[in-house]
Design a protein that fits this description.
With 158 residues, the protein is of the alpha+beta class. It is 33% helix and 36% strand. The protein has a 7-stranded antiparallel beta sheet, sandwiched between helices.
Length: 158
């Protein structure tokens, strides 16, 4: 019971952030159900499948992004980090450059990754939540792809 309460409290803060900014001018929220991802994979042929695809057992992807650059948001990164109960997550990766801070947090059960949170603040403001069941190999590949696509240097990796 205690474990489920901890998971619910961590989820509540993430849900609160999506509710707070969802539908507000200047922000876009997107939720993709894992079944839609599985359906999309059915239409790929073997030539389209790539090694850097998302892990197979993703149940939900939620994205909250600022789409209006003229909208002033006071330190989105710090605000999101303040609203997340960090005791529910481990830091997986942190990237910082002159324009953005990026932090990837994970929730682990046993040797499986159950949730990723990617928080970006600065020139770009976004929160990405990916829930599912991923192996260490899939999680590592996913984080390396995120770092490469972000185009910055790693400050620390746990």
């Amino acid at each position: 019971m205690l474990i489920s309460g901890t998971i619910v409290s961590g989820q509540k803060s993430i849900n609160d952030l999506f509710e707070k900014y969802g539908g507000k001018d200047g922000f876009t929220t997107v939720t993709i159900n894992g079944n839609l991802l599985k359906l999309a994979r059915c239409f790929e042929d073997d030539n389209d499948k790539r090694d850097d695809a998302l892990p197979q057992e993703i149940t939900t992807i939620r994205i909250l992004a600022q789409d209006d650059e003229s909208l002033k948001v006071d330190n989105f990164y710090n605000m999101v980090m303040k609203d997340i109960d960090l005791k529910d997550y481990e830091e997986f990766m942190r990237v910082k450059d002159s324009e953005n801070n990026m932090r990837m947090l994970v929730r682990v059960e046993g040797n499986r990754f159950k949730e990723f949170l990617l928080i970006v603040g600065g020139e770009d403001n976004a929160l990405i939540q990916i829930k599912g069941d991923m192996s260490l190999k899939e999680a590592k590949k996913f984080s390396e792809d995120a770092k490469r696509k972000h185009g910055t240097d790693v400050v620390s990796v746990n």
